[in-house]
Amino acid sequence: MLSGWLFNVCFFLSVLAARTVALHAEQFDEELTLRPLRDGKLAARFSFTTLLKGVAPRNPERLDEDDDSQHYTLFPLALGQILREYAVTEMHLTLNAGNWAYDRWGYPDDLGVSTGAELWAWMGEGGPVTVDDRWKGLRNALAGLFCASLGSLDEQRTTSPALTFQPEGSLPRWNASHQLRHATLPSEHVCTENLTPFLKLLPCKARSGVAMLLNPHRLFDADWHGLGVHVRYLDAGVEVRLAFQAVFDPVRLSSDKRRDWSLRSVFDRTIDRACPVARSSEVRVELLPDSAYAITPDPSEIDGNRATYAVKDRTEPLDVAMRWPGEEAFQYPIEAAPLSPLSVRRTLKGSSQSDAQLSVVIRNNLPVQVRSSYLETMPWLVEFYLHTLHADIGGVPRDDLVSVISYTAPVPHTRPTLFQAILTLPPKTTLHLTMDVTKTFLRYTEHPPDAQRGWDLPPAVLIPFDFGEDPIQNHTTSPGTSAKYARPARPRRIYTSVLLVDLATPDFSMPYNVIIMSCTLIALIFGSVFNLLTRKFVLVRLDGDSAEQKPDVK
Amino acid sequence: MDFRLAFPALVAGRLLLAYTSLPDVLKNDHQLSSPLTSYSRLQEGVYLFQQGFDPYSGGPFRHSPLLLSVFSTVFPLTRFTSPILWTACDAVAAWALVRIWRARQNIAGSMRDTLVAASYLLNPYIFLPSLAFSTSSIENALCLTSLMFACQGRSSAALMALALLTHLSLPSILLLFPVSLLLLTDPFSHLAFPRPFVARIPSLPPLLAEFTAYFLGLCAAATLLCGNTTWVEKTWGAFLLLPDLTPNPGLWWYFFTEMFDHFRPFFLMVFSVHLLIYALPLCIKYQHDGVYATYLLLGVLATFKAYPTLSDPGLFLSMSALFPETYPYLRHPIVTTLLHLHASLLLPLFHNLWLTQGTGNANFFYASTLVFGMANGAALLDAMWAGLRVAIGEMRGECEVAQE
């Protein structure tokens, strides 16, 4: 009797568990893309995608109700809790170090290559908690989760450049609309303390699968490296993609200046076993079409210029290696056409600590006219003089090529500048943009501890979006580089390098002295004035012993 | 020299200077224009307004909406028109100074007219800010115009000019006390023969009411122009809250750069209230001479107001040309002159060393602003002493004047 009852309960529970699992079907895919670059470097991109099927982001209007309980097997719980708590629909966090060289490396596999920390999120409006409060909670929670100074991405750095940062997934159809919050912190660095929590979010940690290669000693030695967390809502469910990108320099690592590489030489590790819960686990190598290379072991599949290794099918450790047997030593390409449609150089000119000039030089590498958006999100440390914005091509003024579409002026100590413009770039020309800026003066408490180092200013972001018709292309036999860029699948962001601005500093040891000296001067004048105003004038006879007093002027 | 010849010559010389490249060099100088009077920021505000952005949504633009409307419609700011306007402001101010002098002496013209005009037009503290197209030149012109009308007994015009001035620069509201004193009495010099103020108290409220009406009218016009009241916080609020810590020759900026955050509101209150303290006592003590009371209060404002430029002390120093009767009784004129000379050499030098050369630090410039504050204070005290001392007259025998 009792056993029958117990059996029933167990059966019921197991059915319930099965139903829950069925509700939250999760799938995990991992992938490593290796891309030998033209200048001998090797770009590696790790991508770990977890898809939580049939789940929608939390509606902020139901934030005051109890949330559905969260039972995940593969989906990172720590991240999931943050997303539910602050009702985040889409979120992108990147922590990078170094400048991505678009000219030599082309577009990155993951577009977020802004130097330092960048966080942007789309969140629904409405409900008991405002978007700004949830944004504050989100960045503080992520700061705790990833051990990064994301708490500094406060109102003084937060903007809403919705044109440049369009959602990458879809937005649920709720009653209220969605809002974007975006902030960058270029001075933030990425290091082991950020990678460790990152690895903890993976179902197999770094013990198996391609994540075995995430060796901090090698990753943070790379010329460029950065990690990213991307959450978006797809029709299938909520997708979390953890990514790590790095650009290694095999020539620097090798003793005889060759660009040969292998997983062992680059990461100092091999992939010994597959992650058992991964649905797919692949290593992809992009092959250079025009060089004599040898790749070992034999790929599971070759599709065009891409060799694929399925880690799951292998029994022995995987150590992909690529060699160029015909090369004695790697010769750096001296004059090679840039791989990106636009080459951008942004500088801050002027030696004064009060004024400067922002100069942006943009070269259109394509033989077609390109229209591009241009975004500046500048902290209030630097104020733009928009009336001095000028564009010229080879010294000829072409202000008609720039149209300002939105501008939010900075508020000292409170709000950053947001400046968005559309640039029209004629084919194969270089556009010079200049604008006078003024540097602000900060309170002594607002300076960082190393004040003389200066402040890092966020990168500008360009998105080339409208590629004109190429008049030559129809007549030429070989569809050259232009055809490749003519119709990209979706607009891709180009980040400029960050700037360092030197702000005037007060003397940090002086607060008491300044208060004392200024107050002394004020008190001296105040006292003398009221001395003159209140005391009577009298005549004093100097030689007589009885002073004759003559009151005067009341 | 004949005034009718000298005045146009001085103005023409000023105009020619304004058409050289000097303004481009000077226009961003922190000593000549503050964030509230800067020409670049005015241009920026006009540009934003014309492009359809609200110039008062951000921090860079802090000029009055009235200036914004004038310069975005009837008077475009270009490299050709600006020198004309700023020279005209100086000419009007100098002309008003001469008229004040004549009204004070009750004469139609004198040999001193040229000297009085030159004391304004050739004062480097006045013409350098004017060459930098600082809107403090407009404020000075309004101030002297208001005083001129008050001397001529034209109360409505004087109060209108004062309301405009107050609208452009909030601390100038303190001038309402001496200007209404002047309107109730006469402009003649009574320093040597002081007499108590004959109370005509019942005629005071209509004056104040008229000023309030003008002032509210201007506020309403400004609010209509902007469509909202954010301009109040951005323009007048800056005088009280000091959001922009750009260096200037005054005493506030470094004090509040170095201020502990939790004491900031307290000291902002103290510094603002401190300015208020002087107005009434000065008016009571110098009740026999409204022009002199205005002059002294301008000296106080030049020393202690929130965003001063060199043209504020310049106005005070130029106005001293109106009171030759006090010159023999200045207590330490040489010390004051040397202090001013010292400060005017140190200010540009240390500003350059700190911000351009990078070889000095902020304390260099702060120290020179202290010297400048000392010089302004010494000039003020000198003028106060002489204004009272002149009543006793020349001393004969072994007597000395002292204070009880």
From TrEMBL, chain A:
<protein>
    <submittedName>
        <fullName>Gpi16 subunit GPI transamidase component</fullName>
    </submittedName>
</protein>
<feature type="signal peptide">
    <location>
        <begin position="1"/>
        <end position="17"/>
    </location>
</feature>
<dbReference type="InterPro" id="IPR007245">
    <property type="entry name" value="PIG-T"/>
</dbReference>
<dbReference type="Pfam" id="PF04113">
    <property type="entry name" value="Gpi16"/>
</dbReference>
<dbReference type="GO" id="GO:0016255">
    <property type="term" value="P:attachment of GPI anchor to protein"/>
</dbReference>
<keyword id="KW-0812">Transmembrane</keyword>
<keyword id="KW-1133">Transmembrane helix</keyword>
<keyword id="KW-0732">Signal</keyword>
<keyword id="KW-0472">Membrane</keyword>
<feature type="transmembrane region" description="Helical">
    <location>
        <begin position="512"/>
        <end position="533"/>
    </location>
</feature>
<dbReference type="GO" id="GO:0042765">
    <property type="term" value="C:GPI-anchor transamidase complex"/>
</dbReference>
TrEMBL record, chain B:
<feature type="transmembrane region" description="Helical">
    <location>
        <begin position="330"/>
        <end position="350"/>
    </location>
</feature>
<comment type="pathway">
    <text>Glycolipid biosynthesis; glycosylphosphatidylinositol-anchor biosynthesis.</text>
</comment>
<comment type="similarity">
    <text>Belongs to the PIGU family.</text>
</comment>
<feature type="transmembrane region" description="Helical">
    <location>
        <begin position="262"/>
        <end position="280"/>
    </location>
</feature>
<protein>
    <submittedName>
        <fullName>PIG-U-domain-containing protein</fullName>
    </submittedName>
</protein>
<feature type="transmembrane region" description="Helical">
    <location>
        <begin position="157"/>
        <end position="184"/>
    </location>
</feature>
<feature type="transmembrane region" description="Helical">
    <location>
        <begin position="238"/>
        <end position="256"/>
    </location>
</feature>
<keyword id="KW-1133">Transmembrane helix</keyword>
<dbReference type="Pfam" id="PF06728">
    <property type="entry name" value="PIG-U"/>
</dbReference>
<keyword id="KW-0337">GPI-anchor biosynthesis</keyword>
<dbReference type="GO" id="GO:0006506">
    <property type="term" value="P:GPI anchor biosynthetic process"/>
</dbReference>
<keyword id="KW-0812">Transmembrane</keyword>
<dbReference type="InterPro" id="IPR009600">
    <property type="entry name" value="PIG-U"/>
</dbReference>
<keyword id="KW-0472">Membrane</keyword>
<feature type="transmembrane region" description="Helical">
    <location>
        <begin position="362"/>
        <end position="381"/>
    </location>
</feature>
<feature type="transmembrane region" description="Helical">
    <location>
        <begin position="292"/>
        <end position="310"/>
    </location>
</feature>
<feature type="transmembrane region" description="Helical">
    <location>
        <begin position="204"/>
        <end position="226"/>
    </location>
</feature>
<dbReference type="GO" id="GO:0042765">
    <property type="term" value="C:GPI-anchor transamidase complex"/>
</dbReference>
<dbReference type="GO" id="GO:0016255">
    <property type="term" value="P:attachment of GPI anchor to protein"/>
</dbReference>
<keyword id="KW-0732">Signal</keyword>
<feature type="signal peptide">
    <location>
        <begin position="1"/>
        <end position="20"/>
    </location>
</feature>
<keyword id="KW-0256">Endoplasmic reticulum</keyword>
